[in-house]
Amino acid sequence: ASRSPSGGPLLTPSQSLGGAGGRRSGYITIGYRGSYTIGREAQADAKFRRVARITVCGKTALAKEVFGETLNESRDPDRPPERYTARYYLKFNFLEQAFDRLSEAGFRMAACSSTGTCAFGPEQGGPADDKIWTSYTEYVFCRD
After folding, report:
1. Which residue has the higher pLDDT, 102 or 34?
2. How far is residue 16's CA from residue 20's CA, in Å, rounded to a whole number?
3. What does the pLDDT read at residue 88?
4. Residues 17-29: what's their mean pLDDT?
């Protein structure tokens, strides 16, 4: 079997570190939609809206371990622990809080991705000099 630099066996993210005090390895993806308005003086006048909802994608058992009671399971209430879901979201709206919980649980950021598009401007009935932009951002965290 392959060994890690510390001498322990290498595990894939789908394997579990069983035993007392063991932690499951795996991935959790955090996502959110955002929007902001930029006027003519873009650098001085960007107006950001707060994050409306932070979504959670991953195995149910991992999500519950990390987020506990702050995980809203109402959109997928009876999901088995070892199954994946992308239908959970958090009961709080602060990305920093989600990142802190993931870090405390031994997760590290593996990747991130963001997209942005102009939702509408004056020509689509938006504010006179402003353009409203929307974005979607995902952060992928893993624990070996």
Report:
1. 102
2. 12
3. 96
4. 71
3-state secondary structure the chain: CCECCCCCECCCCCCECCCCCCCECEEEEEEEEEEEEECCCCCCCEEECCCCCEEEEEEHHHHHHHHHHHEECCCCCCCCCCCEEEEEEECCCCHHHHHHHHHHCCCEEEEEEEEEEEEECHHHCCCCCCEEEEEEEEEEEEEC
Q: What's the predicted TM-score (pTM) here? A: 0.72
Q: Do 57 and 84 touch, CB atoms closer than 8 A?
A: yes
* pLDDT at residue 133, rounded to an integer: 81
- Whether the CA torsion 105, 108, 111, 115 is positive or negative: it is positive
Place of tokens 């942005």: 116
Residue 41: pLDDT band (50, 70, 90) is low
